[in-house]
Amino acid sequence: MSAERDWASLVPTFDMFDPEHEEWKYDGFAWAREHCPIIHGSPPSTGPRSIVTRYADVRQILEDPETFSSAGSPPVPAPIRLGALDADPPEHTAFRRLLNPVFTRQFALQFEPDMRAYARELIDAWVDRGEVEMLGEFASPYVARILARMVFDETDMDKMERAKQVVIRVAERPDDEGFFDLAVLSAEYLAAAIDNPPEREGMLRQLVTGEFLDGKPMTEDQAMGAIASTFLGGLDTSRSAIAAICLLIAQQPELEERVRDPRWIRNDMDEFIRLISPVASLGRIATRDTEVGGCPVKQGEHLLLRFDSANRDETKFPNADQLQFEPPRTGTAGFGLGIHRCIGMHLARVQIAVAMEEIFARVTNFKLAVPPEEITWAPGIANCPHAVPLRFDRVL
Ligand code: HEM
């Protein structure tokens, strides 16, 4: 950590949507965890927010949804509802009861042949070149196609490209216009599903035909929110994980052998997700006066939980800035903890596993094609590199 900075002055200015703060945020959070674990700031992009940096405090909040509500809690107030993501029990429980069955590992595995076919097609386009921009030429289109096929039954890739642009905009700089586009997009999918209920089992069918609360169907607002949050959760996260895992392998070539071993899926993937933390931060609102980490928290206070800072808390994960596979780390917060733990986690794991298997069937020896300092990360809700340019050898 660079000691020369005046962290006490700098850290309270942290703005998750300011691209310049990306460069120092991890050092700033490390300072905060030690000296001032709840940062009280009021950046123009979010207004007053209390940023929670320690693992134990983030965990306490995630595991107590009665005291820390998700309703209306996204980092920037969203003018639309966001399904399970911003619901509390009993509504949240009803969302999960309805949607969990179409987000199981078994359900995702039905689509494995499609995933492999998409991956191969994308790799074919660049494998002879000996170089690739891994985010744009593989991870983004691959994840978008899977979501299109599996969740939205969409075959029009131009529409999915539009969805991707809307989601990236909302994640990097949420404003009313971005949310409006997201609402329109979600409304289109919902209207099509209402007009023509899908025959195939899946999220859209569950939303328009399933029972929600007290035997009643969902309102259109609730269903649109579920669609919007699936776009947000599904498009900007796994793509970041795939691109960033490839980046880490280029920086630490010994990792390739680990990822080539199928056991990495069960043993190591969560450790990559911990270090990358594709979801950087989400919010909660205190429902009563309480205390977090010894600091008073007032009813109505907006808290921003830093999953990435919790995941690098040395008191929970020694040597936290490094990958450590043995002994395996437990309790990592990459997919969240508590009742809102990621519904798309099994899908994410399957698609990441298939991606890496297909990539390493064709290429080896990743090397960064630019100096490391040219790799920059997008600000906002997701931790995602802007681009990951790599060179490689072909597997003969
Ligand atoms: C590596 C990939 C992914 C990571 C790291 C990730 C991370 C997370 C995290 C940290 C949360 C907890 C939010 C909170 O507590 O407020 C979450 C929730 C959620 N995720 Fe993911 N996610 C990933 C992939 C996906 C995918 C592929 C989908 C859907 C297709 C998805 C959909 C959702 C939804 C709908 C929620 C809200 C669940 C609830 O509130 O009960 N995620 N995710």
Automatic annotation (TrEMBL):
Q: Which UniProt keywords apply?
A: Heme, Iron, Metal-binding, Monooxygenase, Oxidoreductase
The family database entries (Pfam families) matched by this protein are listed as: p450
Keyword Metal-binding present in the record's keywords: the answer is: yes
Keyword Heme appears in the UniProt entry: yes
Superkingdom to which the source organism belongs: Bacteria
The family database entries (Gene3D superfamilies) matched by this protein are listed as: Cytochrome P450
Task: Note the InterPro entries from the entry.
Answer: Cyt_P450, Cyt_P450_B, Cyt_P450_CS, Cyt_P450_sf
Q: Where are the transmembrane segments?
A: none
The family note in this entry says: Belongs to the cytochrome P450 family.
Record's protein name: Cytochrome P450
Query: What is this organism's lineage?
Result: Bacteria, Bacillati, Actinomycetota, Actinomycetes, Sporichthyales
